[in-house]
């Protein structure tokens, strides 16, 4: 484990692979931890890539001293990590992490070679009104950590890997930490109000990944097709997977990611 020093604290991350390999930076979503990318690290490093998987502010092993926990903060942390590691990078993001990845591509295009957006929120609509108030009430203490765990667990519709219980245990430990939960709650509060991703400014090639059973949208396929058309992206619909297809179905997603990385390198003249 390593740390990226930011003005208000440190962001924890793991780094694997050859020092001269093309950089891939992986950004989790709200409530999740960097081990959500555990099934990508091995195959990507074996293929010669340098892979960094980071925690969000107050999540996992990152510090809890941060005063702000917005989607833009996540994007700025991601950009800082890419610079620290000598980018540019392909940025892999899930959920809020995917929204942040798109923001980095739009605002710092020199740092981004490609985007892999899994379960991304790109419309900037958020949750408002009665639904937003209900969510806020659901996450309040003392019942909030248990409800958050239940909610996150429900998003793994379909298949899960053999090590899924250990991953959920890591999420549970963070949610039940009195030091971490306020920051995690702040991320929840902002995750459903994603910033508009300035999609017209995204020029990097992109792969949209969506689980066919993702409960965050009434019609996951329609949402994924909208993102594909909006970005001119490739699209991978993943069967028997919910909001975390990269973790749930590595048998499907890892080969597609390797193909995307290879195609992106060819287009950029690096292969």
UniProtKB/TrEMBL annotation:
Keyword match Hydrolase: yes
Provenance organism: Nocardiopsis endophytica
Domain AB hydrolase-1: 24-254
Alphabetized PANTHER family for the sequence: ALPHA/BETA-HYDROLASES SUPERFAMILY PROTEIN (PTHR46438), LIPASE-RELATED (PTHR46438:SF11)
UniProt entry keywords in alphabetical sequence: Hydrolase
Keyword Acyltransferase tagged: no
Record protein name field: Alpha/beta hydrolase
GO molecular function, one term: hydrolase activity
């Amino acid at each position: 484990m390593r740390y990226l020093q930011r003005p208000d604290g440190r962001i924890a991350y793991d780094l694997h692979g050859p020092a001269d390999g093309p950089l891939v930076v992986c950004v989790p979503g709200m409530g999740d931890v960097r081990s959500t990318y555990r099934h990508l690290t091995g195959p990507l490093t074996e293929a010669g890539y340098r892979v960094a998987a980071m925690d969000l502010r107050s999540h996992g092993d990152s510090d809890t001293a941060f005063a702000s926990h917005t989607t833009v903060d996540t994007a700025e942390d991601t950009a800082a990590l890419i610079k620290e590691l000598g980018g540019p990078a392909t940025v892999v993001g899930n959920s809020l992490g995917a929204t942040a990845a798109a923001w980095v591509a739009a605002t710092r295009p020199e740092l981004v070679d490609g985007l892999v957006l899994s379960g991304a929120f790109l419309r900037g609509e958020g949750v408002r009104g009665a639904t937003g108030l209900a969510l806020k009430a659901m996450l309040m203490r003392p019942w909030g950590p248990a409800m958050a765990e239940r909610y996150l667990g429900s998003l793994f519709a379909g298949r899960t890997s053999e090590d899924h219980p250990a991953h959920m245990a890591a999420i549970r430990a963070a949610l039940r930490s009195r030091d971490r939960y306020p920051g995690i709650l702040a991320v929840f509060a902002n995750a459903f109000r994603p910033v508009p991703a300035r999609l017209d400014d995204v020029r990097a090639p992109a792969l949209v990944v969506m689980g066919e059973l993702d409960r965050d949208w009434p019609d996951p396929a329609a949402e994924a097709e909208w993102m594909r058309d909006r970005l001119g992206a490739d699209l991978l619909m993943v069967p028997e997977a919910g909001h975390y297809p990269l973790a749930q179905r590595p048998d499907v997603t890892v080969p597609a990611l390797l193909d995307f990385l290879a195609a992106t390198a060819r287009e950029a003249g690096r292969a």
